[in-house]
Design a protein that fits this description.
Elements (H helix, E strand, L loop, with lengths): L3 E4 L2 H13 L6 H23 L12 E6 L4 E6 L6 H9 L6 H7 L4 H11 L10 E9 L8 E6 L4 E7 L5 E8 L9 H12 L6 E9 L4 E10 L16 H12 L7 E7 L5 E7 L16 E5 L2 E4 L14 E6 L8 H6 L1 H24 L1 H21 L4 H7 L3 E2 L8 H7 L7 E5 L3 H5 L5 H6 L3 E4 L4 H7 L2 E2 L2 E5 L13 H13 L1 H10 L29 H9 L3
Parallel strand pairs: 2-8, 12-14, 16-17, 16-19
Antiparallel strand pairs: 1-6, 2-3, 3-7, 4-5, 4-7, 5-6, 8-9, 10-11, 11-14, 12-13, 15-17, 18-19
Helix pairs in contact: 2-6, 9-10, 10-11, 10-15
């Protein structure tokens, strides 16, 4: 390749500007980003080498190295991972392939803390180097290519970058940061060491730096030829629980998800038996901005015997638990397992069952021991969890207990078990009302009689609620009934006088009803006298067993 100067894609330029400004007060994260890229590059090499062992080129152990040159004021982050070809350097470091960029730009809030978090979520990590560097030079050679096919990429982070071919014997990548004057702290061995411990301790590869020794003659510290390892260098989940602090679990979560809020809960277990695996699963505190996007890369990472296999291994958890983050490391799966194979594997089925049970126990534990936290979880992810009632027959009962609903008599969302406990004597069903919004539900005339009688009605306004109710027809033996369907029969709750009055009105009003039935014959199936209203003159109800008015509206909206 001839030496060329190429412009950054317009989005990259905008992004560079934003990243360097938004993150200025949080400079140090650049190191975490570059180390995470180096670690990804080693994971990729290990993965590709499963199919082609020659890529390891002799097999020196994979490692990440930090090197400083105080005279030149450079910090270099090196790895002997997969490396980049010249084309890859141009496309990976000059454009943003991901379609999320525009979305990212519009999501920026101006609040630096929040924006820093977003930048992580969108994975624009490499460019964060420009917060501390006025020039970044990348030298790389892709595994499997010849020494003549190295590449040098260099940019000052304004409009353009240069690329050139170089000779490079070593496989992998050096990212050389020419530090700005005000970033000289990143030349300090102790500063770097503490950043590695803070952000990158869980990285499974050694992160090494030259040992510094006292030089008697010079009367100063000097770098020796020996390397020392700055991090624990073993994957966090492979260590035993009692060696890991809560802080380390939280740091690992942050590295995994780029979510700067600590998780609500986590669960770390080594499972033995028919299928052997380690699971480290987290419940996030809040929903990511794109929870509803089904293509987003999230969920659980799959490792096989410590080798990274894939992100977002959907087969490892049912869809209704897609908010769970974490790692599963299997001892039994073949290393060359593909997504297709995952769907059919017996081991994967066992892992999925095991992970599902774990997550449900985590949720039960929260609901029981930290109800406030559980409500926080419910507000963020409740609508997703509801899908499980229809999808996971085996766990339906456990899921039903985890549901929470707004109610006419409570200020906080409430559990079905509590509704049962509050039932009036003689009440034979749990009553619910679905509507487009909570406000619409609260002001519905269908509630008049229930309100008068002091009977609790649950108010459901999520899109999935109609579907939920079609699967959740009873709870602990009590039927769940919509107050908007059929004739309301409150059974024992209605006194004799009321029943008699309704009957009398029924016969007295017979001629009026006939008349109305005639007028509305194409539009209403029947016209009845009702006891359900107290103040309103009339309301629409659906026949028992038919879809409700709310669902009919939803279906119409969806064009059905
Ligand atoms: P992300 O890591 O989320 O993909 P980055 O901006 O951090 O985004 O990196 C952009 C891309 O540049 C990476 O996806 C990878 O293809 C390439 N890259 C960055 N650093 C390295 C490296 N050390 N070795 C190989 N490729 C790298
Ligand atoms: Mg990255």
């Amino acid at each position: 390749m001839e030496k060329q100067t190429l412009p950054f894609q317009a989005e990259v330029q905008q992004l560079l500007h934003l990243v360097t400004h938004a993150l200025y007060s949080n400079k140090e994260i650049f190191l975490r980003e570059l180390i995470s890229n180096a670690s990804d590059a080693c994971d990729k090499l290990r993965f590709e080498a499963l199919a082609d062992a020659t890529l390891m080129e002799g097999g020196a152990p994979l490692a990440i190295r930090l090197a400083v040159d105080r005279e030149a004021r450079t910090l270099t982050v090196s790895d002997n991972g997969i490396g980049m070809s010249a084309e890859e350097a141009v496309s990976h470091l000059g454009t943003i392939a991901k379609s999320g960029t525009r979305e990212f730009m519009s999501a920026l809030s101006g609040d630096q803390q929040k924006d820093a978090q977003l930048i992580g979520q969108f994975g624009v990590g490499f460019y964060s180097g420009f917060i501390v560097a006025d020039r970044i030079t990348v030298e790389s050679r892709r595994a499997g290519l010849g020494a003549a096919e190295g590449v040098r990429w260099s940019s000052d982070g304004s409009g353009a970058f240069e690329v050139d071919s170089i000779e490079r014997a070593a496989r992998g990548t050096d990212v050389i940061l020419h530090l700005r004057e005000d970033a000289a702290e990143y030349l300090d061995r102790w500063r770097l060491g503490s950043l590695v411990t803070k952000y990158s301790d869980h990285i499974a590869l050694p992160i090494e730096m030259r040992k510094e020794v006292w030089d008697q003659d010079a009367g100063a510290m000097r770098q020796s030829d020996e390397w020392e390892t700055l991090n624990a260098a073993s994957a966090l989940w492979t260590r035993s629980k009692n060696e890991i602090s809560e802080e380390q679990y939280h740091a690992f979560y942050e590295a995994l998800t780029h979510d700067s809020q600590p998780p609500l809960a986590y669960s770390h277990n080594r499972v033995e038996g028919r299928s052997e695996y380690t699971q480290l699963l987290y419940l996030p505190a809040s929903a990511p901005h794109d929870l509803w996007n089904r293509d987003r890369a999230t969920g659980v990472k799959l490792y096989v015997r410590r080798v990274f296999i894939m992100d977002d291994a959907q087969a490892l958890l049912p869809a209704y638990l897609r908010f769970v983050r974490g790692v599963v490391d299997s001892n039994d799966l073949p290393l060359n397992v593909s997504r297709e194979l995952l769907q059919e594997s017996r081991d994967v089925r066992l892992i999925r069952e095991g992970c599902t049970k774990r997550v449900l126990s985590m949720l039960e534990d929260l609901a029981q021991n930290a109800p406030e936290k559980y409500l926080g979880f419910w507000r963020e992810f409740g609508a997703v969890l509801k899908e499980g009632v229809g999808e996971d027959f085996g766990n339906r009962e456990r899921l039903a207990k985890l549901l929470r609903f707004e109610s006419t008599t409570q200020t906080e969302p409430t559990a079905l078990a509590d509704v049962l406990a509050r039932m009036k004597e003689g009440q034979e069903a749990i009553y619910v009302l679905t509507a487009e919004s909570l406000a619409a539900a609260r002001s519905s005339p269908q509630l008049e009689l229930f309100r008068k009688k002091g009977i609790e009605v649950l108010l459901l306004s999520d899109r999935v609620d109609e579907w939920l109710l079609s699967h959740l027809t009873e709870f602990e033996g009590k039927p769940i009934k919509s107050v908007a369907k059929g004739a309301v029969d409150l059974g024992a709750l209605q006194d004799e006088a009321e029943k008699a009055a309704a009957e009398a009105a029924g016969s007295e009003l017979q001629p009026v009803l006939e008349r109305l039935r005639g007028v509305l014959k194409d539009r209403a199936k029947d016209v009845r006298v009702t006891a359900r209203l107290v103040e309103s003159p009339a309301c629409l109800v659906a026949e028992e067993g038919e879809i409700s008015g709310h669902l009919a509206r939803l279906l119409k909206q969806a064009g059905q």
